[in-house]
Amino acid sequence: MKIKNNHILCFGEVLWDRLPTGAKPGGAPMNVALHLHAAGMNASIASCVGNDEAGNQLLSFLQNSGLQTNLIQIDKNLPTSEVLVHLDAKNNATYEICEPVAWDNIILSKALRNKVEHSGLLVYGSLAARNPVTRETLLQLRNTDVVKLMDVNLRPPYDMPEVVELLIHKSDIVKLNDDELKRIASWNKLKGSEAELVEWLSNHYDLKLLCVTRGANGALLYSNNTFYNHSGYKIKTVDTVGAGDAFLSGLIAALLKELEPSNALELACATGAFVASKAGATPKYDTDEIEQIMKQDYEK
Questions:
Q1: Which of 61, 75, 229, 246 is most buried by its number of CB atoms within 10 A?
Q2: Prior bond to 100 cis, omega within 30?
Q3: What is the CATH architecture assignment of 11-294?
Q4: First and final CA of the chain: distance in angstroms?
Q5: Helix, strand, coil content of the chain in percent (nearest 5)
Q6: Could you tell me the strand order of the sheet in which 15-19 lies?
């Protein structure tokens, strides 16, 4: 799969995760863009915040992180998004997502269209498409020759099959977790082993690459009718907020570096494990620590 250049446009939600330990910047597309930027990749974020203090603080955070904010629109009526994050006894996260918020109203601007036309990779999720305005903007952005990567993010009640499947169609790369794989299969009245469902989903939607994450148990890639597996890394989990986004950033970095699938999985799993070992979705990026996690493969 050829990506025409190394410019990555991440599209969708930016928000504040209200954790028991305090507020942390979040939103899957923003998290991915931040990790890619920290890893030295050419990443941008397109979204919308409210004309409020929470929005101003998010913009300041992004600027201080080194990401440009020229594609962050400001909505005069809708508030900046905030999400209540609940952690269970094992520090796994569940989310309360309010609506409507500013990122539900991302407009197709001339600057946004120009950016995607000059990008090699467009990264988006299903959550951002929950309401019509942002959904239509995303559908228009996909009508270009950019490589399209969808991060499935089934957050009830924003997991409408007709919207999710619309987005999977015409995507080149799809990343989802093992539960989401089963749920999408069930919409089509299908059951089977993980391998059978992976083969079905990849063929049904004509995907170039499919990635299934399994939490602490690693992940798999399916490409060119071949399975690649990684069992994951053992770390002390602080919380899982943003770990999947970090995994995806590692996978994207590996794809742009044209690493072999098995090596791409190593980097992705290690990046996800690194973030799970820290508080919040966007801890300070540490390449040395990620490489140290990857050494587990060679110490087995």
A1: 246
A2: yes
A3: 3-Layer(aba) Sandwich (3.40)
A4: 32
A5: 40, 25, 35
A6: 22-26, 15-19, 81-87, 93-97
